[in-house]
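User:
I study polymers; will you set down one protein's sequence and backbone structure tokens?

Assistant:
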Amino acid sequence: MRLKNILLIPLALLTLSSFSFGTIYENGENSTTSNWRVYDNTPTGATISNVTDSTTQSKVIEFKGERTHNSYLIGARSGKKSWKNSTESKLKWDMNFKERYRVSVYLETRKGKRTFYYDYSDKDKGLFAKRYIRFGLGKSSQNGKWTTIKRDLVADLKKFDPNNKLLKVHGIRIQGSGKIDNIELYSTNEGNKTTPKPIAIPLPINPPKILIPLNPSSYFNGEDGSTQPWFISKKYKKNATATIIYDNNKKSNVIKFNIGGYRLGAQRGLYRWKNKLHTIQWAMNTTQKFRILIYTETEKGIRIFHLTHLKNSLGLHHKKYIRLGLGEKSKNGHWHLYKLNLKKELEQYEPDNKLLFINGFKVYGSGLFDDIKIK
């Protein structure tokens, strides 16, 4: 994909502020397990794999061993391989376990080493042996479904060791067989302090009528406080949610998706846009892996532009998909504005074809989106 056809513009240039989501220690996208090592291999045979998860359709880390007898380490307890993170104290990770597990977080405090244990217990069990603090994430955290865990390590320390102070975070050890993804330390509230309070509005599976754009080129900007233009993919209708929130950095309403599939317009049928213009624009802010599908109609039939966070653009695939990479910066927790001239992209990969219409826009993943337009 040619740089002149797609522009990454941090919205810090358009507004007065920007922010960072912190440090990502694992998101699976390097397709390796190089960040990990088997810490306890008794009994022998424990494995660490980088796999594509069927639910999230993204790369994750999978552990297989003898229940909690085996364990797996990222970072270290201390020493050269430890993270030594002294600036970020909020921890987030995604997990999918259907058996007993324990997540140990290794810390350095003013009073020496501390280890936080997070497991499937329903209650916190607090400080024991002067250096271990046990927290319960609840039985539902081992239900075989993806769950996002967020912990304020400073608050957790003060709850059971109030006269102590967190100095550094060194690493994490996992006990149990299951999957882990998106391990991150950060120092902000993810940039989503919202005023007014979020308006939670369920999305329609089948909207009641053909939706008219806000103006001839704008298909969504969040300012009316409604999620109505969006469809939920039937596959995700039980768990997918969308919320209109006010974003302090962008200074406007935006739409927030959890993991799922969400669509504007359509590939074909009544709800397709049939827009004859060539350039599509959108703003997005995410730290997660994603897929964006842009539905078009050409002289040679349907073409779907398939965009991900990957670096490389792979071009025409299976005669129908054109795969483009937005790069790792597309999920760095900042707002980015993208402009993509679909006519020129089609000419690059299929020079004997011609773009007729842009028909729809679909998101698989989670994050914030806004300002979806065709020019």
Residues 1-21, 189-215 have pLDDT under 50 and may be disordered. The longest strand covers residues 166-175. Helices lie at 153-160, 342-349.
